[in-house]
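Why do we bother with holo predictions? Because pocket geometry can differ from the apo form. Keep that in mind while you read this record for arginine.
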Amino acid sequence: MILALALGALAIAPAAEAAPVAKKKTRGHIVNGNFAQFTAPFNGAIPYQVGLVPVKNGQISKPYDVFCGGTIARSTMQHIVTAAHCVPDSNAADIAVVGNLLNRYDTPGFGPQERRVTAITSHPQFVSVEQGFDVAVLTLDAPLTAPAQWVNLGTTTPAAVGTSSWISGWGATQSGAQGSQQLLVATIRVMSATSCQAYGEDFRDTMLCAGEPLSAENAIDSCQGDSGGPLVSQTSPPRLIGVVSWGKGCGQTQFPGIYARISHPELNALASSTNLVPRAEPITGASVQGTPAAGQTLTCDPGQWNNHTGNFIFTWISAVKGADGKFTDVKGEPSGQTLALSAAHVGRVVGCAATSVGPGGARQSGAPLVTVGPPIAAAAPPAAPPVQIRGDLIAPTSRFTRRSCDRKSRTCSLTITATDSGGPATKAAVTYARISGCKKGKKGAKCRKAKTLKVKSRGKGVFTVTTPRLAPAKYRFTVIATDASGNRSKQTSVVLTVKRR
Ligand code: ARG
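The structure, written out:
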């Protein structure tokens, strides 16, 4: 608040005052900017400006490796408005914020205030700077304190064209140059959308065009490293009206700087939100599951996430990885959680990315690539269940090859030969029945009843039988052979006569 008033009083400083500054054409500044230290009304650190620095292994880099700027735009002193493109693949723990910073070599105790980021909330529609919505809000672990100060957030009423505004940061002083060690500041003016027409369709409704042409080729501009930093109107009170977003090169009159337009309702809502939803963060990282071979289907496993409340979008790419490790023929594959691999994928690498899209923004986690191999040889069909296959389905044949009855002993001896396709291992069942000289009636029936003979196997399908002593009469002998598979032969009969002596 103090700052807002102080700056408000100084905001009378007209745009005209920027001209002398610009005319110096001093290099070694934002691009044609000045040392904040020696520039009124700041004459030191810019109260609402912070630097974003990386945290590696829990440590904040020293000297401060400021990769982006940010703005304290809330009275909480704990919320930083920055550019979504500054923190696309960061987890909150990977970023720290330094307030009241002038020189990147300054150390805490001599001005700088270090704060850890506890949550990142980016605009859910942010994809790339050219597509706009380039705003994110960082929540800090503790408020920044004076002399750091907050600046009013611009309203949804667009800043008037021509409004003089400060840009500041530790960014490059020329396109392609290194960042500045000192905090630099410059005054530029809000320009009409037509002033950014050189960008064609890439200049959008969520963007604001601003700059200060010095000549046909030279302009005051923000540059690489200033991103996320403030565009603050020199009004009463001063307001954050833009966030450094992008541009073609730096300091080119034809291509003014492009800022996220805080008067856009959606961006204004995010920058002023009191209900910030933390963006999801991957914990384990995505991975490709399945066998990478033609004919197989791969699945993209998003892995574990924190704060994932929305949906996952899965995208796939394939490419050829050269012996030099370089990728060529990079192709997008159909999106979806699974990818069916065809012969065309063999020898290529494929990878997926899972993007968590939720109210706190979109965050992507890419899976390590896998190399696709040839189709897997058709798996051997499951071993056939041990079906008892019958040795053969053909019945044996049997016949009496020798037969004779001895008149003296009144016994008959018969030899049976059974042949079988499945081998000689056969059994033979031989019966005989008297078929003559039986009285009629009940007793006769008993007389004709078939009797079983004991069969002796002689091997190789040869069997012999011998009857007991028989009464003189005619007898019918029958044989049925059975093979190893249980096939039974037809019944074969022969009639022998036992004669009286
Ligand atoms: N994208 C740059 C960054 O990441 C900011 C570029 C601003 N460019 C410009 N011409 N205004 O720091």
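Confidence is low (pLDDT under 50) at residues 1-29.
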